[in-house]
């Protein structure tokens, strides 16, 4: 793996940690909020139920997470417009970082914060200005809040992701600042993005000098992801991350892939250090985080 260098003091500590060991990412925020009876829009809870968001972050940290993600997955103008919160994107996003930072204060170890940027289901218009603007305030809020890195996640359309990456590059140039960026894709049962693009081709199209890692998340569960994980590993010399759903939900909306199954599927990749960040997506909670952290600690002792 080639060395990737950034210049921003503490923000570089995440990359330094990745050079030394596998890091544990948290699990699902939405799953946890639903377990407390909350319903979308989850992003407004950064304002109305700050203590609950902080509590969930703290649960993941206590379970062993080295990295937590901000509660900002859908915090863009298009997603929040139907909740009449279009003008609140920046404030809600920046608040998500502030809450995450509060959650790390009592931790006895370093905990890093990734700024979550989810996909948009809206079609790309001929005029890209309004579409790009939807993400502009979200990115600014994450950067001004002080995240350690940005995470574009659940990428199902590499063209949409490229528009967001263009926004990020523009903001980097304007603010004269860079933070590391990770891009994580979701795939179908054939190992393709929903656009039909292969993992390899999507990585080629999205790659930028300041992107430090690529990953696979969500999808049809860990079994689906590990089937195509070798392609991701071959496609990039950057850090690889994996955080799958706990299987595919059944007719009751229940996720059925248990922790032991997920760990068994992941173990060969962990043992060979082919993946560098591991965590959970939809259907996972702090119990999954604890199991991942325990497994990685055992491997480190060998």
From TrEMBL:
Q: Where are the transmembrane segments?
A: none
Q: Give GO terms for biological process.
A: homocysteine metabolic process; methylation; tetrahydrofolate metabolic process
- What does this protein need as cofactor? Zn(2+)
Which Pfam family would be a valid example here? S-methyl_trans
- Where does the Hcy-binding domain start and stop, copy by copy? 11-296
Entry GO CC: cytosol
Its domain of life? Answer: Bacteria
Molecular function in Gene Ontology: metal ion binding; methionine synthase activity
Q: Which UniProt keywords apply?
A: Cobalt, Metal-binding, Methyltransferase, S-adenosyl-L-methionine, Transferase, Zinc
Task: Specify which residues bind Zn(2+) according to the UniProt entry for this protein.
Answer: 218, 281-282
Q: Please report which protein family the annotation says this sequence is part of.
A: Belongs to the vitamin-B12 dependent methionine synthase family.
Q: Please identify the protein, giving its name as recorded.
A: Homocysteine S-methyltransferase
UniProt source species: Fusobacterium gonidiaformans 3-1-5R
Taxonomy of the source species:
Bacteria, Fusobacteriati, Fusobacteriota, Fusobacteriia, Fusobacteriales
